[in-house]
Write a structure and sequence with these properties.
Layout (H helix, E strand, L loop, with lengths): L1 E3 L2 E2 L2 E4 L3 E5 L5 E6 L16 H14 L12 E5 L6 E8 L11 E6 L5 E6 L2 E6 L5 E9 L2 E3 L1 E2 L5 E5 L9 E2 L1 E2 L3 E2 L12 H21 L12 E6 L6 E4 L4 E5 L2
Parallel strand pairs: 3-6, 10-17, 14-18, 18-20
Antiparallel strand pairs: 1-4, 2-3, 4-5, 6-7, 7-8, 8-9, 10-11, 11-12, 12-16, 13-14, 14-15, 19-20
Length: 253
């Protein structure tokens, strides 16, 4: 399967994805479209100014707890095709924090002809994890298709990987069907998620500490997170940091 993101007159089409299904030999077997509507608008010149869309997004973000006074970047023009007839719109993204301290990544879609709010969604997914050392915790996760990844886009893109007893390589990114991770108990199973919960939560708390105490975006202050690997080796009773991979690695002990 190959997923394509569509554009119209150079503008991204939100809700216009299509997937081409292929056989093992590479022959096309079919196409699935997110919308059956023709991607076409009368003009790509907006009637509403971008500043109006930004203010609308900031108001929505304020309701979610964010105290930001400006969007993360200028509103971008898009074609909104997720619902009904495609229209020219603005997409504005506002960061900051939600009312419970979770990073905010609120996307607000504004009709570029009328100024009406068409849609909004939170780009930060929060899962629940049962850790071995910190009890039940909230985790930054990302939804991908029908499953969730232990991938925290709100904190520099931190990812947690499973080495499954190996001692080299990056490992496999942890995924889960229902965004509820771990059991809260130690396990010798190399697929166990509890160790991943502790690693992901530790990285999350570290990122927040640097941000709140020193105003730094990550260890290097470059907005990029390290990554974590768990289930290193067999009965490895330790953990270590490596500059070469810019990552933390944990054994099971």
């Amino acid at each position: 399967h190959t997923r394509y993101e569509r554009t119209y007159d150079g503008l991204p089409v939100l809700g216009g994805d299509l997937v081409v299904h292929q056989s093992k030999s590479g022959a096309t077997r079919g196409v699935t479209k997110a919308t059956k509507a023709a991607i076409k608008v009368a003009t790509v010149t907006p009637k509403v100014k971008a500043a109006r869309a930004e203010q609308q997004a900031l108001s929505a973000a304020e309701d979610a707890g964010s105290s930001r006074t400006a969007a993360d970047s200028a509103p971008r023009k898009v074609i909104w095709a997720a619902e009904g007839k495609p229209v020219l719109a603005y997409e504005t993204v506002v960061g900051g924090l939600q009312d419970d301290g979770t990073p905010n990544e609120l996307h607000v879609i504004t009709d570029a002809a009328t100024g009406a709010k068409l849609y909004e969604y939170q780009g930060i997914e929060t899962g629940s994890g049962k850790s071995l050392y910190s009890g039940t915790v909230e985790l930054g996760t990302t939804k991908s298709g029908s499953s969730y990844q232990l991938y925290d886009t709100g904190r520099g893109g931190h990812k947690t990987y499973n080495l499954a007893r190996k001692t080299s390589g990056t490992g496999t990114l942890f995924t889960d069907a229902d965004d509820a991770w771990g059991t809260g108990t130690a396990s010798s199973d190399p697929q166990d998620q509890t160790a991943a919960v502790d690693a992901a939560y530790g990285a999350q708390v570290t990122w927040d500490f640097y941000k709140e105490s020193f105003g730094r975006n990550g260890i290097k202050n470059d907005g990029k997170a390290a990554y974590s690997r768990v289930h290193y080796g067999s009965n490895y009773v330790n953990a270590f940091w490596s500059d070469s991979c810019f990552c933390m690695t944990y054994g099971d002990g």
